[in-house]
Amino acid sequence: MQNKLKIFIADDHTVVRKGMSRLLKTFKRVVEVQEASNGKELIQLIGKEQPDAVILDVEMPVMGGLDAARYLLEHFPDVKILVLTMHTEDVFISRLMDLGVHGFLSKASGPEEVENALYAIVDKDFYKNNLVDNALHNLKKQPLDPTLEKLSHREVEVLVLICQEHTPGEISARLNISEKTFFNHRSSIIAKTAVRNNIGLYKFALQHGFLA
Amino acid sequence: MASLSQPEFFYLVLIGSGGMLLLVVGIATFITLYQKRILQEQERKRLLELEFQQKMIQTQLDTQEKDSIRIAADLHDSLGSLLWGAKLNAAFMGRSFEMEGEVKESYDALVDILDQSIHAVKRIAWELTPEAFHHSGLSQSLATLCARFNGKGLRVEFNEAGESFLWNDNRALSVYRIIQELVSNTIKHSEASRLEVDLFWTPGILFVKVSDNGKGFILTEKRGGVGWWNINHRSKQLKALIEIGDIPMGQGSEISLRIPLQHAK
Hints:
The complex is a heterodimer of chains A (212) and B (265). Chain A is of the alpha/beta class. Chain A has helices at 14-25, 39-48, 65-75, 90-99, 111-124, 130-137, 153-163, 168-175, 179-193, 198-207, and strands at 5-10, 30-36, 53-57, 80-85, 103-106.
């Protein structure tokens, strides 16, 4: 588990940025915070050094959160993205989820939630909260796409554990495998299910009845 | 004076009368044509005026819609974000100091006020314009509207039957606005404890019924407001038929709409 997190924030409102920056510094596992006032600045910052996670505002001038997220997911897939937004309607969350964003928070959340979300996206690759669940609530069950390669039993086990929000360490210990083996399984599952990351796996698992 | 022979006299009279007759017919034709022209002109003016009025109403409704969207976006992006910034700073302070007694109480109240303000901003913005209307469509947006007003002494139910489909164009938004107005009228004036919004979809017509068990419809006073102006003009544009149910005073109200679904699909 990483304990020295470097976090970047992008928000066009200075008060929000400064407030978030101060708050982040009170989190135990956060050691460094850098700020950008729009997506373009954020990408310039990340070009120089990579953070563990970014906290993105959706509505920003010059380059908004969506475009920034798209760029980061493509060029820096290891950087986790937490989107903070006022727009919490299912369709918006759903769209961001399909894009591959790792977690969402409404701009009303308390500090504990921000902290939990940040650790979850770093440790477990996704943060499952009510926004995610509401957005997936109306998801229709689908039969498995026959063109997809079948998951092995072990892979199904791994998939379910990931969706139950266990960390790689926990899952490896539970299944008595090395973390390296775990990540091999995960890559294989991601390839077979044609999703981007764990939030995609969660949606896939729900959609195909792997979760109760 | 030279005397005229009888036939000569006769012809003269004939020509004279003929001329007179022609003149009369001519004048009559002229007057008729002229009047027709005037009537046509009046009719043309009336149509132009009607068209102009329709355009004005359209513009007014469009402006309303645009204003709502702009104000909602402003509320979210400016006020909402600033309040969120305030909350983050408050959270930082909460984590930096050990507070107790009245100071702690005051701090908690502050955070609570910030939370309530953020929620108020979201609620007002949502009521101004349902963010996701064009994604969710009429049925889904109405279900959300009813769910939002449900509770706090009022049961709001949404039902639909028939072949519903994702109707999300500007006409659909107009229907949504009418129902939203009716629902908010009920909430403001009727003292009802139950409110129902029913949709029935047929291939050509959408039937809407908004009914409640409140004190009934006050026909004279409440119908002059901006709300009714909106409802009337919107239904006119939708070519919809609006009907106020004949329910004895004090036993609730029922308003029905028949909306043609021309090319809605």
